């Protein structure tokens, strides 16, 4: 069993910052990719940023230059530093891991429960 637990969401004013954390636990053999997705009310879930086990990153155009994703492979934790937040960044942020488990074949996608980020005008 693998579990992802997000933390760090909250209510901030435009221009403020938040740092999200996601800790993966369980019988994990390896994690190829970890990332963050977000979903605003009435909108589809979208990719925010991803990072591989060797540190390669990918960002949505809307957050480039403002958000930074990082990870600590020793404890299977991924972070999202969000600066210069805008109201359009508001949404539920979900942690995702594409991983390989002990005693199981293939890769699987695991999702956290989400953490709410609200940016006021």
Sum this structure up briefly.
About 0% of the residues lie in helices and about 60% in strands. By secondary structure, the chain is mostly beta strands.
Secondary structural class: mainly beta
- Count every beta strand, where a strand is a DSSP E run of 2 or more residues: 11
Helical stretch tally: 0
Instruction: Give the percentage of residues in beta strands.
Output: over 45%
The main sheet comes to: 7 strands, mixed
| Terminal-residue CA separation | 40 Å
- Helix content percent band: under 10%
Question: What can you tell me about this protein's structure?
Answer:
The model has no long low-confidence stretch (mean pLDDT 95). Strand 7 and strand 8 (77-82) form a beta hairpin. The protein is elongated. By secondary structure, the protein is mainly beta. Strands 2, 4, 5, 6, 9, 10 and 11 form a seven-stranded mixed beta sheet that branches. The protein contains no helices and eleven strands.
Topology:
Blueprint: E1 2-7, E2 10-13, E3 18-26, E4 28-39, E5 46-52, E6 57-59, E7 67-72, E8 77-82, E9 91-101, E10 108-111, E11 115-120
Parallel strand pairs: 2-11
Antiparallel strand pairs: 1-3, 3-8, 4-5, 4-9, 5-6, 7-8, 9-10, 9-11
Q: Which tags fit this structure?
A:
four-stranded antiparallel sheet, seven-stranded mixed sheet, elongated, 121 residues, 11 strands, mainly beta, 0% helix
């Amino acid at each position: 069993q693998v579990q992802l637990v997000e933390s760090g969401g909250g209510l901030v004013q435009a221009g403020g910052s938040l740092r999200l954390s996601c800790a993966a636990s369980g019988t994990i053999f390896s994690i190829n990719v970890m990332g963050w997705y977000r979903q605003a009310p009435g909108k589809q879930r979208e990719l925010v940023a991803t990072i591989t086990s060797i540190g390669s990153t990918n960002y949505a155009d809307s957050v480039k230059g403002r958000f930074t994703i990082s990870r600590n492979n020793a404890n299977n934790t991924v972070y999202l530093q969000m600066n210069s937040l805008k109201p359009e960044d508001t949404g539920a942020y979900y942690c995702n891991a594409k991983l390989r488990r002990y005693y199981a074949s293939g890769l699987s996608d695991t999702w956290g429960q989400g953490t709410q980020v609200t940016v006021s005008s």
